[in-house]
Specification:
Blueprint (H helix, E strand, L loop, with lengths): L8 E5 L20 H11 L5 E5 L12 H11 L7 E4 L5 H14 L5 E6 L3 H10 L4 E6 L10 H5 L3 H22 L5
Parallel strand pairs: 1-2, 1-4, 2-3, 4-5
Helix pairs in contact: 3-4
Length: 186
């Protein structure tokens, strides 16, 4: 963590909270929860004074279920002071994360920020922020790489994990292509 610069704000991208969780009194996270965990670690290690969580509702028929509001509950439970939490709750995708986070950062007069998202998502996310003119230092998390030191047998046994990894990679490549086509990124 020594090579991570000290900045004003950590920007955490959504995509880690189950918006349709059955427990309304609890916030249910997905396997991308490392995004929030690492943001808290960075904050506690003095890498930034603020955490900006960027995530609205990606749901077509339940736009009131904002991921940022649920993330705030977790951050408060983890001891982050409310005065240090900034929310962007309008975005529905990575392009909008960058666009609406830029507005929040400009209002707060923030310069360079740490961008925290899953490693597989970082190239597209960073490109979107740069296209918006937002200077970010990438802090990828939630690595999905396989341990190649595992036994050959374990690597060749069919598993849904491999199917999930290939689905994530395919979705991200399609996202990169679509975002370049729409000029959301260079």
């Amino acid at each position: 963590m020594e090579d991570v610069p000290v900045v004003e704000t950590i920007v955490v991208l959504g995509g880690m909270i189950n918006p349709l969780g059955i427990h309304s009194e609890r916030v249910e996270v997905t396997d991308a929860a490392d995004r929030l965990i690492d943001a808290v670690r960075l904050y506690r290690n003095g890498k930034a004074k603020f955490i900006l969580f960027s995530g609205g509702s990606g749901l077509l028929f339940s736009p009131e279920l904002k991921e940022a509001e649920r993330a705030k509950r977790i951050l408060l439970d983890l001891g982050i002071p409310e005065s240090r939490i900034l929310l962007e709750d309008q975005s529905r995708n990575t392009f909008e994360n960058a666009k609406f986070s830029k507005e929040k950062l400009l209002l707060q007069k923030r310069e360079t920020s740490l961008l925290v998202t899953s490693a597989f998502h970082m190239p597209r996310a960073k490109a979107c922020f740069e296209k918006q003119g937002v200077a970010v230092f990438a802090y990828p998390t939630d690595y999905r790489a396989l341990n190649l030191n595992a036994s050959a047998f374990d690597l060749w046994v069919p598993s849904l994990v491999y199917w999930e990894l290939s689905t994530i990679a395919t979705k991200e490549w399609i996202g990169i292509w679509a975002y370049r086509f729409k000029a959301y990124m260079d």
